[in-house]
Amino acid sequence: MCEDFTRYLIRGDTDSFSVEIQTDTDPPVKIDLLPGDTVYFTVKKSPDIDDIVFQKVITEFVEGRAEIFISHDDTKDLLVKTYYYDIQINRSGNSFVKTVIPPSKFVLEKEVTYE
């Protein structure tokens, strides 16, 4: 069964979360993200559309993890609806490219207070 990676956010709110990679072993072992690596957090209207609604490109890491920050400006003017996102990691120098979060729902919800 596939894991549900749906993310919910109120339009115009800020959010942040960390991303790390681990081995597929049991137990999993954390693999640090290093200078030269790139993490992409991409939001689109649909996985089948090329146009990007917004994207975060992370190249600096905290304790081997990517800190993804969604700002107020990223979503304040977007329609309230379900978008789709994924997270891809490109490792420097070894052609390692891995989508660590597959295309998943990014649900932008209506705010009550808009100040």
Helical stretch count? 1
Mind telling me the C-alpha Rg? 15 Å
Helix content: under 10%
Overall shape: it is elongated
Provide the low-confidence segments as ranges: none
Q: In whole angstroms, how far apart are the ends?
A: 41 Å
Biggest sheet layout: 5 strands, mixed
Name the structural class: mainly beta
Percent of residues in β-strands: over 45%
Return the average pLDDT rounded to an integer: 94
User: How many beta-strand elements?
Assistant: 9
Give the topology string: H per helix, E per strand: EEEEEEEHEE
Q: Numbering strands along the chain, what is their spatial order in the largest sheet? A: 1-9-8-5-6
Describe the SSE topology:
Elements: E1 7-10, E2 15-19, E3 21-22, E4 30-31, E5 38-44, E6 52-58, E7 66-70, H1 72-75, E8 81-90, E9 97-109
Parallel strand pairs: 1-9
Antiparallel strand pairs: 2-7, 3-4, 5-6, 5-8, 8-9
Which characteristics define this entry?
single chain; 9 strands; mainly beta; 115 residues
Q: How would you characterize this protein structure?
A:
By secondary structure, this protein is mainly beta. It has one helix and nine strands. The strands form three sheets. A five-stranded mixed sheet has the order 1-9-8-5-6, with no helix packed on it. The chain has a two-stranded antiparallel ribbon with strand order 2-7. Strands 3-4 form a two-stranded antiparallel sheet. β3 (21-22) and β4 (30-31) form a beta hairpin. The model has no long low-confidence stretch (mean pLDDT 94).
